[in-house]
Amino acid sequence: MVKHTRKILVQSLKLLFAAGIIYWLVQSGKLNFASLKNLLSPGTAALALLLITLNLFLASERWRVLINSQGEKSKPWPIFKLSLIGIFFNFAMPGGVGGDVVKAFYFSRELHGSKVIAITSVLLDRILGLLAMVLLALLVMLYDFNHIVKIPTLLTLFYFVCAFFISAVLGLALVFSGKVYNSGALSSVLKKLPLSAKLTKLYESMHLYGKNPMSFVKVIGLSLLSQVCAIMFLVLAGTAAGFPDIPVTTYFLVAPLGFMATAIPISPAGVGVGQAAFYFLFNLYIGETTEVGPTTITAYQVGMFIVSLLGAFFYLRKKDHPKISKIENLDSDL
Q1: Taking the complete model, does pTM exceed 0.70, yes or no?
Q2: Domain ranges for the chain
Q3: What pLDDT digit, counting tens, does each position of 280-328 carry?
Q4: Helix (H, G, I), strand (E, B) or coil at 70
Q5: Which residue from 135, 226, 146 is spatially nearest to 172, judged by alpha carbons?
Q6: What is the CA radius of gyration of the chain?
Q7: Which of 61, 99, 193, 330 could join 89 in a cystine, given CB atoms 3.0 to 4.6 angstroms apart?
Q8: Who wins on pLDDT, 159 or 205?
Q9: Distance, CA of 6 to CA of 19 (rounded, Å)
């Protein structure tokens, strides 16, 4: 009871935090919802929702590649439905359960997949998706490096992105290394940490993914394509909202960094955090105050929520709905 109350309190604080940022942006004139009305024209709205749907489908295929790499043969449509359910729960779930946990639970229950594979594939999917964001940001920064070096804050961000990318690659190489695994060096370190049994089993499960390197090439490729769809949505939203003069390269630089900020779980589905991050990054890169950042990410989040309603539909069609505590305890099988 105390644990459940604490999770409700944490989620309530997240909602208040997101609402506070949105209120500040609106009151200070940094976010103008009226500028989004042009997105409501039939043709623009249809293209916008198509880009978001394609973005989510490619992301679900990324997860499916990881699942299949472990011998769990899954088809695109069932995995896509579970991904949509997960996206919906990111917006609507009361409490501390995220959409990733929900889709992993239904994968193990309805598609009869291994619970360990369900957990580790979702975790690795999130890690590799974030790594692809960092890679895209790094490539665009290198492409526009002459502009980056002129702005100290952007140069600092560049060094941070480089450090993050190198650290992530080295960390994954350590986990997937056969020599390290056979030596038992990392396992001996994990056994000295709290929750050593779970950490060791998680490491052993994650290590198995390193035996199929081609799956990582596919995952990174799908991640990059998914991000391109998301960025093209932002370009469409920015143009429709009255910001046609912003170069496409600006979106490609700002978006990966902004999406990295929304991945931090301090607000539901990154609402509020995304608006603040995109406002800061666009203004920093362009060198002038503009509403394009909060406007485009707000349009993106609204579009994501609309598409996620399909996930709500698929969820409600299920005959039985397990208790939240049962979903929360999924990781007990590790």
Answers
A1: yes
A2: 38-333
A3: 999 999 998 888 999 999 999 989 989 999 998 998 888 776 665 666 6
A4: coil
A5: 135
A6: 21
A7: 99
A8: 159
A9: 20
Handedness of CA 270, 3, 86, 79 (dihedral sign): positive
Residue 1: pLDDT over 60 = no
State pLDDT tens for residues 7-38.
Answer: 556 556 656 665 676 666 566 655 666 777 77
Alpha-carbon distances, residue 307 vs 52, 53, 87, 145 (angstroms): 8, 7, 9, 36
In the chain, the DSSP E strands lie at: none
Residue 287 is encoded by which pair of tokens? 């060198």
User: Are the CB atoms for 169 and 127 separated by under 8 Å?
Assistant: no
Q: Residue 238 has which token pair? A: 């920015």
- Token readout for 155 is 């140069």
When pLDDT is averaged across residues 99-118 and rounded to a whole number, the result is 84
Q: How far apart are CA 205 and CA 119, in angstroms?
A: 10
From the list 217, 189, 218, 223, the residue with the least C-alpha distance to 203 is 189
Helix (H, G, I), strand (E, B) or coil at 193: coil
Q: In 3-state terms, what secondary structure has residue 319?
A: coil
Average per-residue pLDDT in the chain?
Answer: 86
In tens, the pLDDT along 158-187 reads: 999 999 999 999 999 999 999 999 999 999
Q: Could you tell me the sign of the dihedral formed by the alpha carbons of 146, 234, 59, 21, in that order? A: positive
Whole-angstrom distance, CA of residue 70 vs CA of residue 214: 13
Q: Which of 102, 97, 4, 74 is nearest to 321 (CA)?
A: 102
- DSSP conformational letter for 332: G
212 vs 283: CA distance, rounded Å: 42
DSSP state of 192: T
Helix axes 292-316, 248-262, angle to 10 degrees: 50
